[in-house]
Amino acid sequence: MPAHMLQEISGSYTTTTTITAPPPEGLQNGRQNLEKTAHHLEEDIRPEMKEDIYDPSYQDAKGPLPKLEYVWRNIILMALLHVGALYGITLVPSCKYHTWIWAYFCYVFSALGITAGAHRLWSHRTYKARLPLRVFLILANTMAFQNDVYEWARDHRAHHKFSDTHADPHNSRRGFFFSHVGWLLVRKHPAVKEKGALLDMSDLKAEKLVMFQRRYYIPGLLLMCFILPTLVPWYFWGETFQHSLFVATFLRYAVVLNATWLVNSAAHLYGYRPYDKNIQSRENILVSMGAVGEGFHNYHHAFPYDYSTSEYRWHINFTTFFIDCMAAIGLAYDRKKVSKASILARIKRTGDGSHKSS
Ligand SMILES: [Zn+2]
Ligand SMILES: [Zn+2]
Protein backbone atom coordinates (compact mmCIF):
# COMPACT_ATOMS: atom_id res chain seq x y z
CA MET A 1 0.00 0.00 0.00
CA PRO A 2 1.47 3.42 -0.90
CA ALA A 3 2.63 5.60 1.97
CA HIS A 4 0.16 8.43 1.32
CA MET A 5 -2.71 5.93 1.51
CA LEU A 6 -1.48 4.58 4.85
CA GLN A 7 -1.21 8.14 6.05
CA GLU A 8 -4.76 8.75 4.85
CA ILE A 9 -6.02 5.65 6.62
CA SER A 10 -4.27 6.26 9.89
CA GLY A 11 -4.68 10.05 9.95
CA SER A 12 -7.51 12.21 11.27
CA TYR A 13 -8.17 10.59 14.62
CA THR A 14 -9.70 12.42 17.47
CA THR A 15 -7.48 11.68 20.43
CA THR A 16 -7.54 12.44 24.11
CA THR A 17 -5.29 14.84 25.84
CA THR A 18 -3.83 13.59 29.08
CA ILE A 19 -4.55 15.53 32.18
CA THR A 20 -2.02 14.48 34.74
CA ALA A 21 -3.14 16.39 37.80
CA PRO A 22 -6.40 15.05 39.23
CA PRO A 23 -8.96 17.79 39.83
CA PRO A 24 -9.49 18.85 43.45
CA GLU A 25 -12.97 17.39 44.00
CA GLY A 26 -11.61 13.96 43.00
CA LEU A 27 -9.02 14.21 45.75
CA GLN A 28 -11.56 15.27 48.30
CA ASN A 29 -14.16 12.59 47.71
CA GLY A 30 -12.04 9.51 47.49
CA ARG A 31 -11.43 6.81 44.93
CA GLN A 32 -14.91 6.44 43.49
CA ASN A 33 -15.12 10.09 42.54
CA LEU A 34 -11.58 9.96 41.23
CA GLU A 35 -12.63 7.05 39.01
CA LYS A 36 -15.67 8.96 37.81
CA THR A 37 -13.63 12.07 37.18
CA ALA A 38 -11.06 10.06 35.25
CA HIS A 39 -13.81 8.50 33.13
CA HIS A 40 -15.22 11.94 32.59
CA LEU A 41 -11.90 13.33 31.39
CA GLU A 42 -11.24 10.39 29.10
CA GLU A 43 -14.71 10.53 27.60
CA ASP A 44 -14.19 14.10 26.37
CA ILE A 45 -13.25 12.71 22.97
CA ARG A 46 -16.90 11.71 22.48
CA PRO A 47 -19.01 14.30 24.27
CA GLU A 48 -22.25 13.34 22.48
CA MET A 49 -22.76 10.03 24.32
CA LYS A 50 -22.54 9.03 27.99
CA GLU A 51 -24.82 6.02 28.27
CA ASP A 52 -22.09 3.36 27.95
CA ILE A 53 -19.89 4.76 30.75
CA TYR A 54 -19.59 2.43 33.75
CA ASP A 55 -21.66 3.60 36.71
CA PRO A 56 -20.00 2.27 39.88
CA SER A 57 -22.79 3.72 42.03
CA TYR A 58 -25.21 0.99 40.89
CA GLN A 59 -25.04 -2.07 43.15
CA ASP A 60 -27.18 -5.21 43.19
CA ALA A 61 -29.92 -5.33 45.80
CA LYS A 62 -29.38 -8.14 48.31
CA GLY A 63 -31.62 -11.20 48.18
CA PRO A 64 -32.19 -14.32 46.08
CA LEU A 65 -32.58 -14.28 42.28
CA PRO A 66 -36.17 -14.21 41.06
CA LYS A 67 -37.38 -17.59 39.75
CA LEU A 68 -36.21 -18.25 36.17
CA GLU A 69 -38.95 -18.00 33.58
CA TYR A 70 -38.01 -19.99 30.51
CA VAL A 71 -38.81 -18.66 27.04
CA TRP A 72 -39.62 -21.98 25.38
CA ARG A 73 -39.90 -20.56 21.86
CA ASN A 74 -36.27 -19.36 22.03
CA ILE A 75 -35.06 -22.59 23.66
CA ILE A 76 -36.63 -24.72 20.90
CA LEU A 77 -35.44 -22.48 18.04
CA MET A 78 -31.88 -22.27 19.41
CA ALA A 79 -31.75 -26.05 19.93
CA LEU A 80 -32.98 -26.67 16.36
CA LEU A 81 -30.50 -24.16 14.93
CA HIS A 82 -27.58 -25.81 16.72
CA VAL A 83 -28.64 -29.32 15.65
CA GLY A 84 -28.88 -27.98 12.09
CA ALA A 85 -25.43 -26.38 12.40
CA LEU A 86 -23.88 -29.63 13.69
CA TYR A 87 -25.38 -31.47 10.73
CA GLY A 88 -24.00 -28.65 8.53
CA ILE A 89 -20.47 -29.45 9.77
CA THR A 90 -20.80 -32.99 8.39
CA LEU A 91 -21.77 -31.52 4.98
CA VAL A 92 -18.83 -29.07 4.75
CA PRO A 93 -16.43 -31.50 2.99
CA SER A 94 -18.97 -32.27 0.25
CA CYS A 95 -19.84 -28.62 -0.56
CA LYS A 96 -18.79 -26.98 -3.81
CA TYR A 97 -15.86 -24.67 -3.08
CA HIS A 98 -17.94 -21.67 -4.20
CA THR A 99 -20.25 -22.47 -1.29
CA TRP A 100 -17.33 -22.40 1.17
CA ILE A 101 -16.35 -18.96 -0.11
CA TRP A 102 -19.97 -17.78 0.05
CA ALA A 103 -20.48 -19.07 3.60
CA TYR A 104 -17.22 -17.44 4.70
CA PHE A 105 -18.23 -14.17 3.02
CA CYS A 106 -21.60 -14.24 4.82
CA TYR A 107 -19.79 -14.90 8.12
CA VAL A 108 -17.48 -11.89 7.73
CA PHE A 109 -20.24 -9.65 6.33
CA SER A 110 -22.72 -10.41 9.10
CA ALA A 111 -20.01 -10.22 11.79
CA LEU A 112 -19.17 -6.69 10.58
CA GLY A 113 -22.87 -5.82 10.88
CA ILE A 114 -22.47 -6.53 14.60
CA THR A 115 -18.92 -5.28 15.28
CA ALA A 116 -18.59 -2.24 12.99
CA GLY A 117 -22.37 -1.63 13.00
CA ALA A 118 -24.44 -2.41 16.11
CA HIS A 119 -21.40 -2.27 18.39
CA ARG A 120 -18.85 0.38 17.44
CA LEU A 121 -21.11 2.69 15.43
CA TRP A 122 -24.58 2.49 16.96
CA SER A 123 -24.03 1.38 20.59
CA HIS A 124 -20.87 3.35 21.30
CA ARG A 125 -20.78 6.10 18.61
CA THR A 126 -17.01 5.63 18.30
CA TYR A 127 -16.98 6.91 14.71
CA LYS A 128 -19.37 8.40 12.19
CA ALA A 129 -20.53 6.79 8.96
CA ARG A 130 -22.03 8.21 5.78
CA LEU A 131 -25.27 6.82 4.39
CA PRO A 132 -23.86 4.19 1.96
CA LEU A 133 -21.80 2.65 4.78
CA ARG A 134 -24.75 2.76 7.18
CA VAL A 135 -26.93 0.99 4.60
CA PHE A 136 -24.21 -1.64 4.12
CA LEU A 137 -23.97 -2.12 7.90
CA ILE A 138 -27.73 -2.32 8.47
CA LEU A 139 -28.01 -5.04 5.79
CA ALA A 140 -25.06 -6.90 7.32
CA ASN A 141 -26.58 -6.49 10.78
CA THR A 142 -29.90 -7.89 9.57
CA MET A 143 -28.10 -10.94 8.18
CA ALA A 144 -26.54 -11.49 11.65
CA PHE A 145 -30.04 -11.63 13.24
CA GLN A 146 -29.15 -10.73 16.84
CA ASN A 147 -32.20 -8.53 17.44
CA ASP A 148 -32.50 -5.18 15.69
CA VAL A 149 -29.87 -2.48 16.20
CA TYR A 150 -32.02 -0.46 18.60
CA GLU A 151 -32.59 -3.40 20.94
CA TRP A 152 -28.98 -4.63 20.62
CA ALA A 153 -27.64 -1.18 21.48
CA ARG A 154 -29.99 -0.77 24.45
CA ASP A 155 -28.88 -4.14 25.88
CA HIS A 156 -25.26 -3.27 25.16
CA ARG A 157 -25.29 0.17 26.75
CA ALA A 158 -26.83 -1.45 29.85
CA HIS A 159 -24.06 -4.08 29.73
CA HIS A 160 -21.41 -1.35 29.90
CA LYS A 161 -23.15 0.98 32.34
CA PHE A 162 -24.12 -1.76 34.82
CA SER A 163 -21.44 -4.38 33.97
CA ASP A 164 -21.65 -7.65 35.85
CA THR A 165 -24.66 -6.72 37.97
CA HIS A 166 -28.26 -7.90 37.61
CA ALA A 167 -28.99 -4.86 35.44
CA ASP A 168 -26.45 -6.20 32.89
CA PRO A 169 -28.49 -8.36 30.45
CA HIS A 170 -25.70 -10.98 30.26
CA ASN A 171 -24.28 -10.64 33.76
CA SER A 172 -21.12 -12.80 33.75
CA ARG A 173 -21.39 -13.36 37.51
CA ARG A 174 -24.24 -15.76 36.68
CA GLY A 175 -21.78 -18.10 34.96
CA PHE A 176 -20.48 -19.02 31.51
CA PHE A 177 -23.70 -20.52 30.17
CA PHE A 178 -25.91 -17.65 31.29
CA SER A 179 -23.65 -14.93 29.84
CA HIS A 180 -23.09 -16.93 26.63
CA VAL A 181 -26.62 -17.88 25.59
CA GLY A 182 -28.74 -18.55 28.70
CA TRP A 183 -29.72 -14.88 29.00
CA LEU A 184 -31.57 -15.18 25.67
CA LEU A 185 -33.53 -18.22 26.85
CA VAL A 186 -35.12 -16.75 29.99
CA ARG A 187 -37.10 -13.61 30.77
CA LYS A 188 -34.94 -10.60 31.62
CA HIS A 189 -34.11 -9.87 35.27
CA PRO A 190 -36.38 -7.03 36.54
CA ALA A 191 -33.29 -4.83 37.06
CA VAL A 192 -32.43 -5.07 33.33
CA LYS A 193 -35.90 -3.86 32.38
CA GLU A 194 -35.92 -1.14 34.99
CA LYS A 195 -32.46 0.29 34.28
CA GLY A 196 -32.61 -0.38 30.52
CA ALA A 197 -35.79 1.66 30.21
CA LEU A 198 -34.00 4.68 31.73
CA LEU A 199 -31.16 4.71 29.18
CA ASP A 200 -31.02 7.58 26.74
CA MET A 201 -31.64 6.08 23.30
CA SER A 202 -32.70 9.32 21.62
CA ASP A 203 -29.81 9.23 19.12
CA LEU A 204 -31.06 5.92 17.72
CA LYS A 205 -34.71 6.93 17.82
CA ALA A 206 -33.74 9.90 15.65
CA GLU A 207 -31.91 7.77 13.09
CA LYS A 208 -34.36 6.87 10.30
CA LEU A 209 -32.38 3.91 9.01
CA VAL A 210 -32.25 2.25 12.45
CA MET A 211 -35.98 2.79 12.95
CA PHE A 212 -36.68 1.46 9.45
CA GLN A 213 -34.82 -1.76 10.29
CA ARG A 214 -36.76 -2.08 13.54
CA ARG A 215 -40.09 -1.60 11.78
CA TYR A 216 -39.47 -4.21 9.09
CA TYR A 217 -37.24 -6.48 11.14
CA ILE A 218 -39.08 -9.80 10.69
CA PRO A 219 -39.33 -9.75 6.87
CA GLY A 220 -35.82 -8.24 6.76
CA LEU A 221 -34.17 -10.97 8.80
CA LEU A 222 -36.04 -13.76 6.99
CA LEU A 223 -34.70 -12.41 3.71
CA MET A 224 -31.14 -11.51 4.80
CA CYS A 225 -30.35 -14.26 7.33
CA PHE A 226 -32.18 -17.26 5.82
CA ILE A 227 -33.57 -16.85 2.28
CA LEU A 228 -30.74 -15.00 0.52
CA PRO A 229 -27.79 -17.03 1.92
CA THR A 230 -29.62 -20.27 0.98
CA LEU A 231 -30.80 -19.27 -2.49
CA VAL A 232 -27.52 -17.80 -3.80
CA PRO A 233 -25.48 -21.07 -3.88
CA TRP A 234 -28.48 -23.07 -5.07
CA TYR A 235 -29.38 -20.67 -7.87
CA PHE A 236 -25.98 -19.39 -9.05
CA TRP A 237 -23.76 -22.47 -8.97
CA GLY A 238 -26.15 -25.37 -8.63
CA GLU A 239 -25.32 -26.29 -5.02
CA THR A 240 -27.83 -28.72 -3.49
CA PHE A 241 -30.57 -27.07 -1.43
CA GLN A 242 -29.50 -29.16 1.56
CA HIS A 243 -25.86 -27.97 1.46
CA SER A 244 -26.96 -24.37 0.93
CA LEU A 245 -29.37 -24.42 3.87
CA PHE A 246 -27.28 -26.32 6.43
CA VAL A 247 -23.85 -24.85 5.64
CA ALA A 248 -24.30 -21.30 4.28
CA THR A 249 -27.30 -20.57 6.50
CA PHE A 250 -27.54 -22.63 9.72
CA LEU A 251 -23.84 -23.31 10.28
CA ARG A 252 -22.76 -19.78 9.31
CA TYR A 253 -25.47 -18.20 11.50
CA ALA A 254 -24.59 -20.38 14.51
CA VAL A 255 -20.86 -19.63 14.15
CA VAL A 256 -21.43 -15.85 14.12
CA LEU A 257 -23.79 -16.11 17.11
CA ASN A 258 -21.31 -18.12 19.17
CA ALA A 259 -18.37 -15.91 18.20
CA THR A 260 -20.33 -12.86 19.41
CA TRP A 261 -21.51 -14.62 22.57
CA LEU A 262 -17.92 -15.55 23.47
CA VAL A 263 -17.24 -11.84 23.95
CA ASN A 264 -19.88 -11.84 26.71
CA SER A 265 -18.85 -15.16 28.25
CA ALA A 266 -15.18 -16.09 27.68
CA ALA A 267 -13.92 -12.48 27.46
CA HIS A 268 -15.53 -11.74 30.84
CA LEU A 269 -14.02 -14.85 32.47
CA TYR A 270 -10.64 -15.79 30.90
CA GLY A 271 -7.69 -13.50 30.24
CA TYR A 272 -5.53 -10.73 31.69
CA ARG A 273 -6.73 -7.34 32.85
CA PRO A 274 -3.86 -5.00 31.93
CA TYR A 275 -5.97 -1.82 31.89
CA ASP A 276 -8.33 -2.27 34.83
CA LYS A 277 -8.12 -5.11 37.33
CA ASN A 278 -11.29 -3.94 39.09
CA ILE A 279 -13.63 -4.96 36.26
CA GLN A 280 -14.54 -8.45 35.01
CA SER A 281 -13.81 -8.06 31.29
CA ARG A 282 -10.51 -9.44 29.96
CA GLU A 283 -8.13 -9.49 26.99
CA ASN A 284 -8.76 -12.69 25.05
CA ILE A 285 -6.90 -13.25 21.76
CA LEU A 286 -8.93 -16.33 20.76
CA VAL A 287 -12.17 -14.39 21.10
CA SER A 288 -10.68 -11.61 18.98
CA MET A 289 -9.91 -14.06 16.21
CA GLY A 290 -13.48 -15.40 16.08
CA ALA A 291 -15.21 -12.08 16.67
CA VAL A 292 -13.15 -10.11 14.08
CA GLY A 293 -11.42 -7.93 16.65
CA GLU A 294 -13.70 -7.75 19.68
CA GLY A 295 -11.68 -9.74 22.24
CA PHE A 296 -9.61 -6.88 23.67
CA HIS A 297 -12.35 -6.65 26.17
CA ASN A 298 -10.61 -5.30 29.26
CA TYR A 299 -9.47 -2.37 27.12
CA HIS A 300 -12.93 -1.97 25.60
CA HIS A 301 -14.70 -1.69 28.95
CA ALA A 302 -12.00 0.70 30.20
CA PHE A 303 -12.32 2.89 27.07
CA PRO A 304 -15.71 2.14 25.43
CA TYR A 305 -15.41 5.22 23.17
CA ASP A 306 -12.32 3.97 21.29
CA TYR A 307 -13.27 2.98 17.72
CA SER A 308 -10.68 0.17 17.66
CA THR A 309 -11.99 -1.51 20.87
CA SER A 310 -8.30 -2.15 21.43
CA GLU A 311 -5.13 -0.28 22.32
CA TYR A 312 -3.86 -1.37 18.91
CA ARG A 313 -5.27 -0.95 15.43
CA TRP A 314 -4.94 -3.84 12.97
CA HIS A 315 -3.58 -6.41 15.42
CA ILE A 316 -6.12 -9.31 15.21
CA ASN A 317 -8.74 -6.70 14.50
CA PHE A 318 -10.33 -7.00 11.08
CA THR A 319 -13.11 -4.61 12.10
CA THR A 320 -10.65 -1.75 12.67
CA PHE A 321 -9.01 -2.53 9.32
CA PHE A 322 -12.45 -2.38 7.71
CA ILE A 323 -13.37 0.95 9.36
CA ASP A 324 -9.98 2.41 8.35
CA CYS A 325 -10.55 1.32 4.74
CA MET A 326 -13.98 2.98 4.84
CA ALA A 327 -12.31 6.12 6.22
CA ALA A 328 -9.80 6.02 3.35
CA ILE A 329 -12.63 6.21 0.81
CA GLY A 330 -14.47 8.86 2.83
CA LEU A 331 -17.35 6.75 4.14
CA ALA A 332 -16.22 6.73 7.80
CA TYR A 333 -14.88 9.71 9.72
CA ASP A 334 -14.35 11.16 13.18
CA ARG A 335 -12.84 7.93 14.54
CA LYS A 336 -12.26 8.31 18.28
CA LYS A 337 -8.91 6.97 19.53
CA VAL A 338 -7.65 7.25 23.08
CA SER A 339 -4.14 8.70 23.28
CA LYS A 340 -1.21 6.48 24.25
CA ALA A 341 -0.52 8.74 27.22
CA SER A 342 -4.04 8.24 28.61
CA ILE A 343 -3.74 4.49 28.12
CA LEU A 344 -0.40 4.34 29.93
CA ALA A 345 -1.76 6.44 32.78
CA ARG A 346 -4.70 4.04 33.13
CA ILE A 347 -2.43 0.98 33.02
CA LYS A 348 -0.37 2.47 35.81
CA ARG A 349 -3.39 3.44 37.86
CA THR A 350 -5.62 0.37 37.60
CA GLY A 351 -3.82 -2.34 35.54
CA ASP A 352 -3.06 -5.86 36.82
CA GLY A 353 0.63 -5.58 35.85
CA SER A 354 0.35 -7.88 32.79
CA HIS A 355 0.84 -5.09 30.22
CA LYS A 356 4.23 -5.09 28.51
CA SER A 357 4.80 -1.51 29.69
CA SER A 358 4.27 -2.48 33.35
ZN1 LIG B 1 -19.15 -2.51 23.90
ZN1 LIG C 1 -18.43 -6.86 28.00
TrEMBL record:
Keyword Protein biosynthesis: no
GO terms assigned for molecular function: iron ion binding; palmitoyl-CoA 9-desaturase activity; stearoyl-CoA 9-desaturase activity
Transmembrane segments: 70-89, 101-122, 216-237
Entries under PROSITE patterns matching the protein: FATTY_ACID_DESATUR_1
Record-level GO BP terms: monounsaturated fatty acid biosynthetic process; response to fatty acid; unsaturated fatty acid biosynthetic process
Cellular localisation: Endoplasmic reticulum membrane
Bilayer topology annotation: Multi-pass membrane protein
Cofactor(s) for this UniProt protein: Fe(2+)
Record flagged with keyword Plastid: no
GO cellular component: endoplasmic reticulum membrane
Record keywords, A-Z: Endoplasmic reticulum, Fatty acid biosynthesis, Fatty acid metabolism, Iron, Lipid biosynthesis, Lipid metabolism, Membrane, Metal-binding, Oxidoreductase, Transmembrane, Transmembrane helix
EC number: 1.14.19.1
EC class: oxidoreductase
Catalysed reaction equations from the record: octadecanoyl-CoA + 2 Fe(II)-[cytochrome b5] + O2 + 2 H(+) = (9Z)-octadecenoyl-CoA + 2 Fe(III)-[cytochrome b5] + 2 H2O
Predominant location: endoplasmic reticulum
Superkingdom field: Eukaryota
PANTHER family membership: ACYL-COA DESATURASE, STEAROYL-COA DESATURASE
Domain notes: The histidine box domains are involved in binding the catalytic metal ions.
Family to which this protein belongs: Belongs to the fatty acid desaturase type 1 family.
Record-given protein name: stearoyl-CoA 9-desaturase
Lineage, opening ranks: Eukaryota, Metazoa, Chordata, Craniata, Vertebrata
